[in-house]
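ENTRY TYPE: paired fold submission
RECORD: A
CONTENT: sequence, then C-alpha cells
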Amino acid sequence: MPRLDYPEAVVDLITELKRLPGVGPRSAERISVWMIQHNKANPEALSIALDTAREKVSLCDVCGFFSTLGECDLCDDDGRDVSSICVVEQPTDVLPLERSGAFGGYYHCLGGKLSPLDNTSPDDLNIAGLLRRISQSEAEGLEVIIALSSDVEGEATGNYLVEVLSKLECSVTRIAQGLPAGGGLEHADELTLMRALQGRR
C-alpha cells in the first residue's frame, strides 16, 4: 500500500520553500499548509510582491546596495560625507549600520568574502569597483572603513583589502571588535576578550 502524502501541488510548494535560506523541511511544510488553509493567507499578493521585487530591484553598479529601476538611494544621497566609505560584505549589512546612526558616509558592498573552500576569489568580489571609486574620489583625506565579519574568511578579506588599499591615497581603518553591550565577561570567548583588550581606549 503506497504511503499517503500531500497532493503533488503541495509537495512542489514545500520543495520550493525548502530552497529558501533558513527554512527547513518542517517549516516549509507548516508555511505551505498555512497558506492553503488560512483565510488571512494571500498567496496572490505574495506572488505579485515577489515578481515586482524581482523585476524592479537589483544591485547598484557602483556601491552594490539595492537599487530600484537603476536608482540607488545611497549613491544619490548628496547629504552624505564624501570623505568616508564603509566596506561591508553584503547589502544587508548596510541597514544595521544605518540604523545605529553612527556613520554618515557612503557604503561599498563586496558581495561576499574570500573563501577558498567556496572558490570565492578576489575576482568574485566587488573589489575592482571599490578601487575605482577610491581612485576617482576627489575627497581630501578619504577614509576607508573595513566593517567585515570577524570569522576566518572575514579576517582574510580584511587583510587582503588592507594590502591592496595601502597602494592608494586613502587611510584604512577597521571597526573595533569586542564585547557586545550588556554582555558579561563570563559569556565571551578568548578571541573576543583579546580583541576587546587590544581595542581598549
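RECORD: B
CONTENT: sequence, then C-alpha cells
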Amino acid sequence: MEFYFLKMNKRRSIITALLLIIVLPACRQVVDWDLTSVEPVLVVEGNISTAYEPWEIQLSMTQDYFAKVDPPVVDDAFVTISDDAGNVDTLAHRGGGVYVSANANRCVPGRTYTLTVKSRGETYRSSGYCREQLPIDTLFYFYFPEKNGFIEPGYYVFELAKEIQPKGDYYWWQIYKNDTLQDEFGYILDTDEFADFSFFNVHYDADKIGNIDPDFPPRPFPFGFDPGDVVTVEQYCIDKSMYDFLNETQIQQNKAGSPFDAPPSNPIGNISNGAFGYFGVMNKESRSVRIP
C-alpha cells in the first residue's frame, strides 16, 4: 500500500506538471507600466545635536524611478540654522550638495532650532526642539560562551542609564566597534514605555556594577565583540516625529518585494513646502568601554 501511494503521487505530479506547461503560456500577459515623469522635488537630509561639531545639511533633488544616474545635487541654495534665542548660522556649500557651518556648534537643551533653505525661488523650513537627557551612567559587558537562541558566543555590552520622567521620550542608538558603525540590524530605536530585556537572562554582579534600579534595567545591544575591542555607545534623545520617520524609513528599506508587502511610500518628513527628508534636532550622550 505504501508503494502504491507513492506511485500514485508521482503519477499525479507528472499530470499536474504537464497541465501547467500547457496552461501557463496561455495565461501570460505582458504589462507595460506607463510611469510618467514628474517635476523634481527638494530632498533635505541633516541632523544637529548637543555634540560640538560642524553642522551639515545635504540637499538633492528627486528623479524618475528608472533614472540611471545619481540624484542631482543642489549647489546654489542659501541655508541657515537659527534658534529661538536669536542666533543664526549660515552654512556654506562645500561641494556635492553638502552645506557646512564655518565653526563647530552644539544644540542647547530647551531651545528650538529652525532650518531655512532658499532654493530656486522657493523657501523651505523645518524646526526641532532639543530635548533634555540624562548622561549614560556606565557600560559593562558579559561573556556568553555558548550559542543561546539568536545570541552568538562572544562579549555583549550593556548600558545603564536613567531617563527623565514622565514617560514620552524616544531614543536612537548608534554602536561603534573600533570606530566602525555596527548597522547590520538597522536603526536601533526605542521608547521609554517598556523596559523588559530579560531575554538575555544575565545575573548582574552588584559588587562590579552596583545595585540595579528595577525601574531602569540594563539595556543590551545585539552585537558580539572580541577581546581588545573598544565599544562606543551613542545615545540620542529624539522627538516622536523623528522616531516615526526613522522607523518608517527602515520599514521601506526592509521590503522584500513580495505580494504581501504594503505599497512603497515616502516616509513622512518635517520639511515644509512639499520637500522630502528630515531635519533632526537631537540630544547626544556618548560613552565607551574597552573589552580587555
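NOTES ON RECORD B: The longest helix spans residues 2-27. Helices lie at 2-27, 206-209, 240-253.
STATUS: closed
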